[in-house]
Design brief:
With 175 residues, the protein is α/β, with parallel strands linked by helices. The protein contains 5 helices and 5 strands, in the order ααβαβααβββ. The chain has 2 domains: 43 residues; 107 residues. 37% of the residues lie in helices and 12% in strands. The protein has a 5-stranded mixed beta sheet, with no helix packed on it. The longest helix has 19 residues.
Length: 175
């Protein structure tokens, strides 16, 4: 889009050079009209592009409802949703945990990347998550987006409804 805007601006400049003198009031009015149109179309909240995030909820370290449900220091968030990563990472930039996908899933260890791909391909199949569940340690957490309690299809973990459709799973505490 920026390259197209530059191209249009350069073409308009050439056209205006031929049709309107540089010191013409008509040229100033045309430029002002185009600038106003651009401003109104890019700053409007069409389709809630600017206000969609207002009121969004995020996981934070200081949320008392999530005490014990976020990864412990050195733990890992096993997740496949990049939006989850960005929302959580930028709300908790100094958190003592790590993320499997992080900024780029291609940087994952090969076995985690294979599991990640299998989850994306077989999203509704709980078997795709089992390699990560087998790999989990007590400080780690598995993040799922589900409308129903994941305990019904992944019973080997304890589950906590965090917010929206987001669930956090952890290994059961040893008795």
């Amino acid at each position: 889009m920026p390259a197209l805007m530059v191209l249009v601006a350069l073409d308009l400049d050439l056209l205006l050079e031929l049709r309107l003198p540089r010191d013409s009031v008509k040229r100033l009015a045309l430029a002002a009209g185009l600038a106003a149109t651009l401003c109104l179309t890019t700053t409007s909240d069409a389709g809630s592009r600017w206000s969609a995030g207002a009121g969004a909820e995020y996981l934070t370290e200081d949320d008392p409802n999530l005490a014990g449900w976020l990864p412990a220091p050195g733990g890992i968030f096993y997740e496949t949703d990049m939006e989850f990563f960005y929302h959580t990472f930028f709300r908790n930039p100094t958190a003592p945990w790590r993320y499997t996908a992080g900024f780029e899933p291609a940087f994952m260890p090969p076995e985690d990347f294979l599991t990640y791909q299998q989850i994306l391909i077989n999203y509704t199949n709980p078997e795709a998550y089992r390699p990560w569940i087998r790999k989990m340690r007590p400080p780690d957490r598995l993040v799922l987006s589900s409308r129903s309690d994941p305990a019904s299809f992944l019973p080997e973990l304890e589950w906590k409804h965090a917010l929206g459709t987001l669930w956090l799973g952890r290994l059961p505490a040893k008795k």
